[in-house]
Amino acid sequence: MLVLLAGIFVVHIATVIMLFVSTIANVWMVGSSNVGTISTGLWLLCNKTCTQLPVSSRDEASLKAVQAFMILSIIFSVVALVLFIIQLFTLEKGKRFYMTGAVMLVCWICILIAVSIYTARFTGTMVYSTNPHHGYCFILAWICFCFSFIIGILYLVLRKK
């Protein structure tokens, strides 16, 4: 049981780190231009230098929603990690980690909403770019989506023995 708890803890830490990286780094979409490689993220447009991300007024609300839900997913993931540590030392044997699992599933929903909005609104629409494709941050966000669901379900069914 200790190995299972340690494994879940390590995957949870990895998920938090990947969420931070995918939110902060500016490689959600990558394309090429005559200047070189262009990448866009949730915050900046980068080629040789980074500038403010040019967004039409039509897509501005969508981008802000993606930014907000990614930040919320980080917050909920960290809160779930702290709850897990607290519940690990305060719950009696045989009790379940219901609160930790519920908070992690809220994190999962936030990631789902953010990545779905980004996919629907911003995929393939890079300014000044040809041949746009998804970058590693977009892929990390989907990996975090899978990990947070698995971790949330494991917390709900996990008993402390």
Question: How many distinct beta strands?
Answer: 5
Spatial sequence of strands, sheet with the most strands: 4-3-2-1-5
Number of separate helices: 4
Give a short account of the largest sheet: 5 strands, antiparallel
> What is the structural class?
alpha+beta
Low-confidence stretches: none
Q: What oligomeric state is this?
A: single chain
| Separation, N- and C-terminal Cα atoms | 7 Å
The topology string of helices and strands comes to HEEEEHHEH
Percent in strands: 5-15%
Name some characteristics of this structure.
161 residues, alpha+beta, five-stranded antiparallel beta sheet, 5 strands, 12% strand
Summarize this structure briefly.
The protein has 161 residues and is an alpha+beta fold. It has helices at residues 2-24, 60-90, 98-122, 136-157; strands at 29-32, 37-40, 44-46, 50-52, 130-134.
Structural account:
With about 160 residues, the chain is an alpha+beta fold. The chain has one domain (about 1-30, about 60-125, about 135-160). Helices cover about 65% and strands about 10% of the residues. It has helices at about 1-25, 60-90, 100-120, 135-155, and strands spanning about 30, 35-40, 45, 50, 130-135. The chain has a five-stranded antiparallel β-sheet. Strand 2 and strand 3 (about 45) form a beta hairpin. The longest helix is centred in the middle third of the chain and has 31 residues, at about 60-90. The protein is elongated, with a radius of gyration of 18 Å. The chain starts with a helix and ends with a helix. The model has no long low-confidence stretch (mean pLDDT about 90).
